[in-house]
Amino acid sequence: MTALRIRTPTANGLRVIFFDRVPGRWGLPPQVLGAVIGSEVPRAVVYVFYRNVVHELGHTVATLTRAAVDVAKALAHVIAHELVHAYAPGHRHRGYGLMAPRLGPEALLRRSASLDRKCLNALLEGLAAANSGSGIK
Q1: Distance (Å, whole) CA 122 – CA 88
Q2: 81-106: b or e for each residue (b if 16 or more CB lie within 10 Å)?
Q3: Is it the case that residue 60 has pLDDT exceeding 80?
Q4: pLDDT band at 44, cuts 50/70/90?
Q5: Residue 55: how many other CB atoms lie within 10 Å
Q6: Given its phi and psi angles, is residue 94 left (phi above 0), alpha (psi -120 to 50 degrees) or beta?
Q7: What pTM was estimated for this model as a whole?
Q8: Considering just the CA atoms, what is the radius of gyration of the chain in Å?
Q9: Rounded to 5 degrees, what are φ and ψ at 49?
Q10: 3-state helix, strand, coil in the chain (%, to 5)
């Protein structure tokens, strides 16, 4: 089982992890597309199950080309980058990592992408502010 991890500098930071398949020991339905597990609020880890998303679209991993897999990985990086801009609009680009002003092929195809502490704090503050009036905890 492989995973693409969007990491933060500490173990208790926000992470998005893409797994090939649902680990059987988790007790989740085998067809679940994604999950947030744990009792802490806000939850620190979001899991996305790649094979189930592919299957839901009517495909199999065997029928996907290498290009499609690379595009999916790159899209995950771009989505994470833009989520930071959406929830932390005052946070500027950095010269490195997920928030670099330009994500070239090497950055887009990395197995993981990290957020520095300042970026992570801005993102968490933005998420908290966005959820403060919604009743979401």
Answers
A1: 5
A2: bebbeebbeebeeeeebbbeeebeee
A3: yes
A4: low
A5: 15
A6: beta
A7: 0.60
A8: 16
A9: -105, 100
A10: 40, 15, 40
